[in-house]
Amino acid sequence: MLGAVELIVLGTTSIVLLAGSLGWARTRHIDIDMRRSVQPPRLHVGAEGRVDLSAENRSARATPVQHITDVFDDGRRAARFLVPPIPPGDIARAAYRVPTSRRGRYPIGPLTLGLFDPFGLARSSQLATGIDEVIVRPRIHDIVAPPDAPGRHAATADTVRASVFSADGEDFLTLRDYEIGDDLRRVHWRSTARVGELMVRQDETRARAHATVLLDTRASAYDIVSFELAVEAAASIVAKLATLRRRVEVVTSNGQTLGDAATGDAPLVMDRLAQIRLDTGDRLLSVVAGLAGRQRTGVLVVVTGATTDEEFAKLAGLSTRYGVVTIVSTKATAGREAFLAPSLVHVDAAHVPFPTAWNEAVSRWTLPGTSAPGSRSPR
Q1: Is 7 exposed, middle or buried (0-12, 13-18, 19+ CB in 10 A)?
Q2: Burial of 119 by CB count in 10 Å (0-12 exposed, 13-18 middle, 19+ buried)?
Q3: What is the rounded CA–CA span in Å between residue 165 and residue 347?
Q4: Does 100 share its domain with 243?
Q5: Contact 289, 225 (CB under 8 A)
Q6: Residue 83 CA to chain centroid, in angstroms?
Q7: Could you give the CA distance from residue 249 to residue 177 in angstroms, rounded to a whole number?
Q8: 191 & 215 share domain
Q9: Residues 304 and 173 in one domain
Q10: Residues in a beta bridge with 215
């Protein structure tokens, strides 16, 4: 139309190339079997996880160059691979690491295969796999067991040091570690001298106290950092109690029950802690009142952030109902010494790393003749 032969040739060539590329992309189909394997499907913050991909060519000819895209976290991130031609019957493999910097439940997929025509003008894509998921649980810290109710202990494999009858004719079921509140007349001095620690005779097996972990989820009590620390603290305590086969119930300040680790719910509790979020409501005092009214009490561990004097006083008041109350504060709160009681352990994790603060406070409380900083040793 313009009388320019060069433009006519260039335009015609472009149209032909575009039409050919679109036709190639539309008619090209790859008979390929894509598989995804998440190892492991559940892991903790900071752990190493990976996703393995395999592509098997089931067609009678080699595949063209493929672009594989596997999305993660609802498409916020993605793993991309360029796969060279795969001969018939062969399998190509690829892998990528799962991000574990944040806890949560993350969908993986769908995985798509992309093909470009030889000129790179058109692209076709097809879904190759469905959606899997990976749960990143809170980080677990190595801590000592929470303090038990005075004088309550079970003859279990983690505490028993000696069994049945002693050589000097004394009749008792087992020996166990001394705990605050035990009658000193029950101390077995010969075994104490042998192991270097106070050992107490136990005439019968007594059930360990039921443990309850209360996690404060109020948004007003935390910032982002202190809340994540609180979730890690709760998960570490539950993991330790579950390892010792202790019965532990986990509740939140909004009245939700996350599970009972004694009935095999420990994995479920960890999954729920991986997804727990801050709550804008404030039902802490009503939940505390419900705990105070329970008939079956035992050991209570409260994990919270910043609390008012009234809230801390209510939590500390539970020590008259429960055998031992341990309060973990992950956000700075001053002036709590006035509320401390003999059966109350306060763990200040706002200024010291949680594992260090916990182990020091609990160890000082449970050792005879010592006390945790700012608290009085029970008599």
Answers
A1: exposed
A2: exposed
A3: 40
A4: no
A5: no
A6: 36
A7: 25
A8: no
A9: no
A10: 252, 303
Helix (H, G, I), strand (E, B) or coil at 342: coil
Residues 257 and 356 in one domain: yes
The count of structural domains within the chain is: 3
> Cα(first)–Cα(last) distance of the chain, in Å?
105
**79 and 183 together in one domain:** no
Range of the domain at 175: 162-202
Going by C-alpha positions, the residue among 198, 197, 199, 196 that lies closest to residue 162 is: 199
The CATH number that applies at residue 44 is 2.60.40.10
Question: Global pTM?
Answer: 0.74
Contact assessment for residue 312 and residue 325, using Cβ atoms and an 8 Å cutoff:
no
Write down which residue in 175, 202, 229 finishes a domain: 202
Angle of helix 224-243 versus helix 266-275 axis, rounded to 10? 180
Q: State how far the Cα of 97 lies from the Cα of 100, in Å rounded to an integer.
A: 9
pLDDT tens, N- to C-terminus, the chain (379 residues): 566 887 888 888 888 888 877 777 777 767 888 899 998 989 999 998 999 999 999 888 888 888 899 998 888 889 999 888 899 989 999 999 988 999 999 999 899 888 777 777 777 778 888 899 999 999 999 999 887 755 444 444 444 444 433 444 444 456 777 765 566 777 878 877 877 777 877 654 444 568 899 999 999 999 999 999 999 999 999 998 888 778 889 999 998 989 876 556 788 899 999 999 999 888 999 999 998 888 766 789 999 998 888 888 898 888 888 878 888 999 877 666 666 677 788 899 988 999 999 999 888 876 544 444 444 433 3
